[in-house]
C-alpha cells in the first residue's frame, strides 16, 4: 500500500540565541492510509515538530534544512502558498491539547464550525456535524460561546471542525491531556470512530503510552529527533527492541505491580545543536557499549519492526551490557 505521508531524512531546526536546535535529526516515517499511528516520546523528542510539519505549521524560527516530507502527494517544504493552503484546508485536520486555545472565545461555536465547513452551511448541517462528534444537544452547543462548554464538549467541537471537510489525515497532539481522566477514553473512542467513518489516517502525538496502546494500530517511538522504533503496537509494546521504548514502558503509569514504584527514566533528553554522530540515547542506556558512543546507529529491521539501535537483538533477548560497555 502506498503511504499517505512519507518523511525522508527530515532535518528541521529552530534558530535560537544559543544556536540552531536540531528538533528533527533525519527523521524517517511512513503513515499508511486509514491507520491510527501513535508517535510517543518524552517532552522535546520532536513529536510536535513532526506533526506540525505535515501542514508546514511551524513557527517562523523553524528551518527545514534537508530531507523531504510528502503529504498526500504534496512536497510540503517545496509547495507554493496556494498548494499549502489547499492541503491544510481540504486534506488535513488538527486537534490540539487545549481546545480553548483552538476556539475563538468571542464567537459562538456554530459560526466557528460553519467557517471550518466552508461555504454557507445551514443550521441543520452544522448541527449534524456536531452530532457526529457525539455532542449532546448540538443546537444548544451551536448557540454557546466556548467558555459555556465543558473541556470535553469544547474538544468535541474542535474534533467536529477538524473533520468538517473530510480530511485524509487527522493529527491529534495530546488530544486528551487537558481533559478529565474519566472522559479521555470516550473522546479517544470518538476520534477513532470518526477515523473509521472518514477513512482518514489518525496520528496521535502523546506522552501517554498506556492511552496510545489501547488506540493505535502502529506506534512510532521518538528520541532525539529520530524515530527509534516503529512497528505494530501490540508487537512493540509486548517486546520492545529499543532500550528507550523499554524505559518508556517502565515509566508508564499503570505498568507497576501493586507496591512497586514507577521507574523514571534517569537523565534527560538531549537538546541537539548539530547532527548526532552517535546514539543520542547512549548516555542514558543500560545496554550501551563502546560502539554506541562512537557510531550513529542506522534504522534496520529487527524482530518484525524498524529499530535504530546497534544492540536491538540483545534488547529483545533482555541481555544487559557486556564487558565491551561504554565507560
Ligand atoms: N519555537 C522553538 N524555538 C526553539 N526551540 C524549539 C522550539 N520549538 C521546539 N523547540 C525544540 O525542539 C525540540 C523538539 O521539540 P518538540 O516540541 O517538537 O518536541 P515534543 O516531543 O513535541 O515535546 P512536547 O511533548 O513538550 O511538546 C526540543 O529540543 C525543543 O526545545
UniProtKB/TrEMBL annotation:
GO cellular component: plasma membrane
Gene3D superfamilies per UniProt: P-loop containing nucleotide triphosphate hydrolases
Family stated for the protein in its record: Belongs to the ABC transporter superfamily.
Cellular compartments annotated: Cell inner membrane
Membrane topology, record value: Peripheral membrane protein
Gene Ontology terms: biological process: peptide transport
Gene Ontology molecular function: any one: ATP hydrolysis activity
InterPro entries the UniProt entry points to: AAA+_ATPase (IPR003593), ABC_Ni/Peptide_Import (IPR050388), ABC_transporter-like_ATP-bd (IPR003439), ABC_transporter-like_CS (IPR017871), Oligopep_ABC_C (IPR013563), P-loop_NTPase (IPR027417)
Pfam families: ABC_tran (PF00005), oligo_HPY (PF08352)
Key words of the record: ATP-binding, Cell inner membrane, Cell membrane, Membrane, Nucleotide-binding, Translocase, Transport
SMART domains per the UniProt record, alphabetical: AAA
Protein's recorded name: ABC transporter ATP-binding protein
UniProt superkingdom: Bacteria
ABC transporter domain segment(s): 5-249
First-listed, main subcellular location of the protein, grouped into a coarse class: membrane
Amino acid at each position: 500500500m502506498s503511504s499517505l505521508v512519507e518523511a525522508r531524512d527530515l532535518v528541521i531546526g529552530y534558530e535560537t540565541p544559543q544556536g540552531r536546535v536540531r528538533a528533527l535529526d533525519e527523521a524517517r516515517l511512513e503513515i499508511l492510509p486509514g491507520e491510527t499511528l501513535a508517535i510517543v516520546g518524552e517532552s522535546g523528542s520532536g513529536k510536535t515538530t513532526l506533526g506540525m510539519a505535515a501542514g508546514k505549521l511551524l513557527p517562523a524560527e523553524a528551518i527545514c534544512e534537508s530531507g523531504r516530507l510528502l503529504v498526500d502527494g504534496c512536497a510540503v517544504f517545496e509547495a507554493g502558498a496556494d498548494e499549502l493552503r489547499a492541503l491544510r484546508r481540504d486534506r488535513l485536520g488538527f486537534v490540539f491539547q487545549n481546545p480553548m486555545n483552538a476556539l475563538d472565545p468571542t464567537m459562538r461555536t456554530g459560526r466557528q464550525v460553519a467557517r471550518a465547513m466552508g461555504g454557507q452551511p445551514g443550521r441543520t448541517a452544522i448541527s449534524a456535524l456536531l452530532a457526529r462528534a457525539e455532542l449532546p444537544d448540538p443546537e444548544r452547543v451551536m448557540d454557546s460561546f466556548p467558555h459555556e462548554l465543558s473541556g470535553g464538549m469544547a474538544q468535541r467541537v474542535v474534533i467536529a471542525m477538524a473533520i468538517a471537510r473530510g480530511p485524509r489525515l487527522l493529527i491529534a497532539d495530546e488530544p486528551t491531556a487537558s481533559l478529565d481522566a474519566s472522559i479521555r477514553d470516550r473522546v479517544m473512542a470518538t476520534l477513532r470512530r470518526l477515523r473509521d467513518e472518514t477513512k482518514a489516517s489518525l496520528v496521535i502525538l502523546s506522552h501517554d503510552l498506556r492511552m496510545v496502546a489501547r488506540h493505535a494500530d502502529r506506534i512510532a517511538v521518538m528520541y532525539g529527533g529520530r524515530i527509534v522504533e516503529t512497528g505494530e503496537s501490540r508487537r512493540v509494546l509486548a517486546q520492545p527492541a529499543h532500550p528507550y521504548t523499554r524505559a518508556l514502558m517502565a515509566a508508564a503509569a499503570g505498568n507497576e505491580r501493586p507496591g512497586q514504584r514507577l521507574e523514571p527514566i534517569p537523565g534527560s533528553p538531549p537538546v541537539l545543536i548539530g547532527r548526532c554522530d552517535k546514539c543520542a540515547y547512549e548516555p542514558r542506556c543500560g545496554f550501551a557499549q563502546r560502539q554506541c558512543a562512537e557510531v550513529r546507529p542506522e534504522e534496520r529491521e529487527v524482530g518484525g519492526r524498524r529499530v535504530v539501535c546497534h544492540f536491538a537483538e540483545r534488547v529483545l533477548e533482555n541481555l544487559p551490557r557486556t564487558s565491551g560497555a561504554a565507560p
